[in-house]
Amino acid sequence: MCMMCGTPGAHRYSLATRPEHRLVGRHWEGSFAAAAAGALHPLIEDIKALSARHERFWRSPIVGLSWNDREDGFRYFAGFALEGEDCPEGCSALYLPEMELADVWHGPGDGDVIENYRAMLEWMGDSQLRHDTLHFHQREEYSPDVDLSAPPSLRLMLPVRR
Questions:
Q1: Containing H/E element for 18?
Q2: Taking the mean position of all CA atoms in its chain, how far away is CA 148?
Q3: C-alpha angle with apex 74: 73 to 79, nearest 5 degrees?
Q4: What is the rounded average pLDDT of the residues 52-75?
Q5: H or E stretch including 120?
């Protein structure tokens, strides 16, 4: 379901450009099983609280970046956009260049997130787009007030190259 207009299955996949930006946050590394059991939730909640303390006129979405570069799991970074300020204590900064991403809104009734990623990869192939893993493998964007106890509601994104 489109999180913007509420239409089930609307819009499916599209391309979005993210400008160059700086994310501040924290890293996690672990197994797929641990992540599926909720191991990322405390990290995302910490970033959500940290983001709220740095609120100005606009609150950045909570951004999760994944690197699927281990056989037994993956690396993950959860953060938010923060320009012009020192990096908060206990955090590190990632600088991302401008890039194009395939994206889709994934709402509570949209099934399994992994299946949605698989379908997006298929759409990319059909559209002559390649998955560009130079900077990360997946990007997820959660609302700044995400409720992790509810069914998943987020924006799924894969970096692309034409």
A1: strand 14-18
A2: 14
A3: 145
A4: 89
A5: helix 113-126
Smallest CA-to-CA distance from 106 within 141, 146, 156, 151 is with 156
Which pLDDT belongs to residue 11? Answer: 55
The helix/strand/coil state of 24 is: strand
* Beta strand 92-96 pairing with 130-131: unpaired
- The owner of tokens 């990632």 is 94
Distance between CA atoms of residues 9 and 36, nearest Å: 25
Residue 112 amino acid letter: D
For residue range 125-152, list pLDDT tens digits in order.
Answer: 999 999 999 999 999 999 999 999 999 9
> Which strand (E) or helix (H) includes residue 53?
helix 41-53
Rounded-to-10 torsion of CA 41, 37, 72, 124:
-70
Identify any residues that bridge with 21 across adjacent strands, giving them in sequence order. 96
Distance CA 126, CA 86 (A): 43
Distance CA 158, CA 162 (A): 13
- Distance between CA 157 and CA 133 in Å, rounded? 12
Determine contact, residues 71/43, Cβ cutoff 8 Å: no
Q: How far apart are CA 92 and CA 24, in angstroms?
A: 6
3-class DSSP state of 68: strand
d(CA 148, CA 64): 13
